[in-house]
From TrEMBL:
Residue ranges of domain AB hydrolase-1 in the record: 4-218
A GO MF label: hydrolase activity
Keywords: Hydrolase
Matching InterPro entries: AB_hydrolase_1, AB_hydrolase_fold, AB_hydrolase_sf
Any Pfam family: Abhydrolase_6
Record's keyword annotation contains Hydrolase: yes
Domain of life: Bacteria
Protein name listed in UniProt: Alpha/beta fold hydrolase
């Protein structure tokens, strides 16, 4: 049995991992905590607080954990792996980045000028490939997180640059990206190239939050990767 910690996108919550939790909890210990300012966890949000809360989660486990992260939480997972190398057994990273992008400042300015309802409508589109219930849950999570938390997350990501530290990560890593999530494909390639021995896969017909678009494939991908890591450690 492995301990798998699922890390949700910024503006989301641990509930976004329900398909994976339900499928894997019979075979593994599965955790899907809410980051600060998200779901049931009080804010405010910052990368420092997100890393601290995740470190507290994994340090409470008896064995190293497998971190599975999507979107903005990929950066959190990388920071946790760098801070606690002995406590992280492997990484599965989807649709994230190790650094801010050129258009981040313009994006934040645009969102800052928008009313919160419009921001929710735009961002919940990332979940449109899943079931209607997932879209409704995404909208509730985004409203609960609120505009301030969403903007804080984007601002922190915009200032981050971990490219020079990726080589410090020596654990097994699988970097995945939906083929439709074209904006993050260069970031996925960059992360995979920076982590020694990392595997990179592009998932056909998948978007940004593809664990809800293609839940069975995402779950199987995580399950098979974790099993391979466990097998190699024996």
């Amino acid at each position: 049995m492995a301990v798998i910690v699922f890390m949700h996108a910024f503006g989301s919550s641990g509930r976004a991992w329900q398909p994976q939790v339900l499928r894997l909890r019979g075979e593994h210990r599965v955790l899907a905590p809410d980051l600060p300012g998200h779901g049931a966890t009080p804010g405010p949000f910052s990368l420092e607080r997100a890393v601290a809360s995740t470190r507290a989660t994994i340090l409470g486990e008896a064995e190293p954990v497998h971190l599975v992260a999507v979107s903005g939480s990929v950066s959190v997972a990388l920071l946790v792996a760098l801070a606690e190398p002995a406590r992280v057994a492997s990484l599965v990273l989807s649709g994230g980045a190790a650094r801010g992008g050129r258009g981040d400042a313009a994006q934040r300015l645009m969102l800052r000028l928008m009313p919160e309802g419009m921001i929710v409508s735009i961002l919940k589109g990332m979940y449109a490939g899943g079931k209607a219930e997932h879209l409704d849950q995404a909208a509730r999570d985004l409203r609960r997180a609120g505009k301030a938390t969403i903007l804080a997350g984007l601002a922190e990501l915009g200032r981050l640059d971990l490219r020079d530290r990726l080589g410090e990560i020596s654990i097994p890593a699988l970097v995945v990206n939906g083929a439709k999530d074209k904006a993050n494909l260069p970031h996925a390639e960059e992360i995979a190239a920076g982590i020694h021995g990392a595997e990179h896969r592009v998932i056909p017909n998948a978007g940004h939050i593809w664990n809800l678009e293609q839940p069975e494939l995402f779950t199987r991908t995580v399950h098979e990767f974790v099993r391979a890591v466990l097998r190699d450690r024996r």
